[in-house]
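In the design runs reported in the main text, the only information available to the sequence generator was the tokenized backbone. The following block is the verbatim input for one such run; it is reproduced so that readers can re-run the procedure and compare outputs position by position.
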């Protein structure tokens, strides 16, 4: 057995481990809970807790924690030891079913969006048995949901699990119309994670990277990604050592890390796992991000997971590869001839309807201050939601709407014209890097989410929107069978596609023509977070989430308020950091250089005569002009920043940041960056892009 096979999943209380540590009857009962959603009784929990504790202690664990996802989007944990004092001289190790099932962290300092008062501190965590417990840093981590004293969801996981239930019920209804029984229905996810690795020494010298996760200043590097040599290039040794350690740690934790490579931008990389159920995939992605940050420090590196840490080059996304699995089979597998696969066409039509009907909600899930800088360029999709189907599926959809005949050509063979090279099958769709929502063979790749995001919101909305489309189909066709069902099904598909085909676009999402065409089609173009977030608090949004019991109105409002507050706080931090760097670093450096240049001019002209230092004078004038503009813009930023901070209404505050403050920040950055390339290097106060992106 290989080393990987020996280590894989050794720190996870997975099915294999459960079979070893649990009595057979208990194991079967627990599997019924995990697979079928049956309630978990306390007697069962006690046996599971004891076995879980014994296993964890054997692996070196001394503590346990309920590992959960508050509305901040990151993970949280409070560690409790297994020890139970017998007297003042000895302890025993104990872990009860009650401690496994329920915890009580202080909830007062977690974001609640007005759902509960700050002084109401009680909150509960509840074990999620569908996501395996694992050991991290000698602590048994138990994935849990997190709710308030009154039962409202205060986390990302709970609504996701509710949406999983909604889509399961509606898929079962639809498949029953096709004469199929579906027991296990789960949305599946493969979350591709992009990130940057930079030198720890450079990171420590950049206040903006430390406080904001991205550079607020920086002139374009002399060499960026234009030679296209970094993508899939040889991995530098330091990064390779980081990747090897990361793989080992993730494999021990049962994370199926599959693919690693250099991405397009210098210092940018990607890790892609195998698919698993959406709930577990998101837990694993959050764990992956945590391990990336920790392990980078072992190699003198810092992992940047923000969406646009550097201007002028690619940003980082987290591509959300989504599908639906039924009893281990992929519902989005077209088969050899998609038009003959009625079930697939129904699923495709439902997704098209879901994305078109709820495009604003999907856009809202990807709206963050960091992602605003990424969307619309450098391989990131634009802010307009559209769907890419590829040539074959586009022809299928067109034929259905027009009522014309269509015959699949099957998979074409690619002949490369060299005898020694084998022919291979051509995929039924190409890739479109500018499409936000693209079909990629047997799944849809939602490319809009940012690299720093928790994908729970994205998939919660996607699941619920899809459940709504499936419900519409089932409501319209239940009671029909045989030929009547076939005719009604074909008509439903045709009419639904006609009503929602505006969302389908297979061209260049970056073109000005598409922006104009999208407007003619009536598609939304919510270009920043301030414009995107209100989609969450509309009657349409309330109705969707309420219909499937995913979120009630208070829980929706809570999430809107939390997202709004996070955006405003992020902008406040960036404004303060930008002013601090200008006042204490950049202006003194520029002015010191100006003083030195003035002395040089005087010295030169004293020796060779007035007017002989024209080049130095020209540069001196540029420096003085730049410094004057920087002073003026910094003062203006300070004024507008404080005006925004004084606004009490969260939405109006966000609007002012987006519409008035950010343009000033961009202009201020322009002037500081223009000084970087004419100021003598010894005066410049921090590492430049040339140094950060091309460390040895």
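Verbatim output:
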């Amino acid at each position: 057995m290989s080393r990987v096979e020996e280590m894989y999943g050794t720190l996870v209380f997975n099915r294999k481990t459960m079979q070893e540590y649990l009595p057979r009857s208990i194991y079967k009962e627990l599997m019924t809970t995990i697979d079928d959603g049956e309630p978990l009784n306390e007697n069962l929990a006690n046996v599971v807790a004891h076995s879980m504790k014994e296993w964890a202690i054997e692996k070196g664990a001394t503590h346990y924690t309920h590992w959960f996802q508050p509305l901040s989007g990151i993970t949280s944990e409070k560690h409790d030891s297994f020890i139970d004092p017998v007297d003042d001289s000895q302890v025993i190790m104990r872990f009860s079913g009650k401690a496994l099932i329920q915890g009580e962290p202080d909830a007062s300092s977690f974001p609640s969006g007005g759902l509960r008062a700050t002084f109401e501190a009680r909150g509960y965590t509840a074990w999620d048995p569908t996501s395996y417990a694992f050991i991290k840093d000698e602590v048994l981590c138990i994935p849990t949901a997190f709710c308030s004293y009154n039962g409202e969801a205060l986390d990302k996981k709970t609504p996701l699990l509710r949406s999983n239930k909604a889509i399961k019920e509606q898929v079962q209804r639809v498949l029953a119309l096709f004469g199929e029984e579906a027991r296990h229905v789960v949305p599946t996810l493969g979350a591709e994670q992009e990130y940057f690795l930079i030198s720890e020494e450079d990171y420590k010298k950049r206040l903006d990277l430390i406080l904001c996760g991205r550079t607020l200043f920086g002139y374009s590097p002399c060499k960026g990604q234009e030679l296209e040599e970094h993508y899939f290039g040889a991995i530098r040794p330091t990064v390779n050592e980081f990747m090897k350690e990361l793989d080992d740690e993730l494999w021990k934790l049962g994370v199926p890390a599959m693919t690693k490579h250099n991405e397009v931008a210098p210092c940018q990389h990607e890790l892609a796992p195998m698919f698993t159920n959406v709930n577990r995939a998101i837990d694993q992605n959050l764990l992956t991000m945590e391990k990336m940050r920790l392990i980078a420090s072992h190699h003198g590196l810092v992992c940047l997971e923000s969406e646009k840490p550097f201007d002028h080059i690619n940003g980082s996304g987290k591509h959300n590869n989504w599908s639906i699995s039924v009893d281990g089979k992929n519902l989005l597998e077209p088969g050899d001839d998609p038009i003959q696969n009625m079930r697939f066409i129904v699923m495709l039509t439902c997704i098209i309807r879901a994305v078109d009907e709820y495009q604003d909600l999907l856009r809202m899930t990807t709206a963050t201050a960091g992602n605003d800088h990424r969307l619309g360029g450098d391989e990131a999709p634009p802010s307009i939601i559209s769907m890419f189907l590829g040539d074959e599926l586009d022809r299928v959809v067109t034929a259905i709407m027009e009522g014309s005949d269509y015959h699949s050509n099957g998979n074409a063979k690619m002949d490369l014209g060299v005898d020694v090279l084998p022919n291979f099958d051509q995929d039924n769709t190409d890739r479109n890097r500018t499409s936000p929502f693209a079909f990629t063979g047997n799944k849809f790749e939602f490319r809009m989410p940012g690299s720093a995001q928790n994908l729970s919101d994205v998939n919660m909305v996607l699941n619920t929107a899809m459940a709504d489309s499936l419900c519409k189909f089932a409501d319209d066709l239940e009671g029909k069978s045989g030929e009547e069902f076939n005719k009604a099904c074909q008509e439903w598909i045709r009419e639904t596609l006609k009503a929602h085909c505006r969302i389908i676009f297979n061209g260049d999402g970056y073109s000005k023509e598409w922006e104009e065409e999208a407007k003619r089609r009536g598609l939304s173009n919510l270009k920043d977070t301030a414009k995107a977030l209100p989609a969450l608090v509309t009657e349409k949004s309330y109705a969707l989430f309420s219909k499937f019991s995913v979120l009630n109105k208070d829980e929706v409002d809570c999430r809107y308020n939390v997202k709004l507050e996070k955006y405003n706080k992020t902008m406040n931090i960036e404004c303060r950091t930008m002013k601090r760097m200008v006042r204490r670093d950049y202006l003194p450096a520029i002015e010191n250089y100006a003083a030195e240049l003035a002395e040089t001019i005087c010295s030169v002209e004293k020796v060779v005569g007035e007017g002989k230092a024209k080049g130095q004078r020209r540069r001196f004038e540029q420096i003085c002009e730049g410094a004057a503009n920087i002073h003026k813009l910094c003062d203006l930023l300070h004024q507008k920043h404080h005006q925004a901070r004084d606004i009490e209404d969260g939405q109006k505050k966000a609007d002012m940041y987006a519409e008035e403050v950010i343009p000033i920040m961009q202009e201020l950055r322009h002037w500081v960056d223009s000084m970087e390339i004419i100021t003598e290097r010894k005066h410049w106060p921090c590492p430049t892009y040339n140094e950060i992106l091309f460390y040895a």
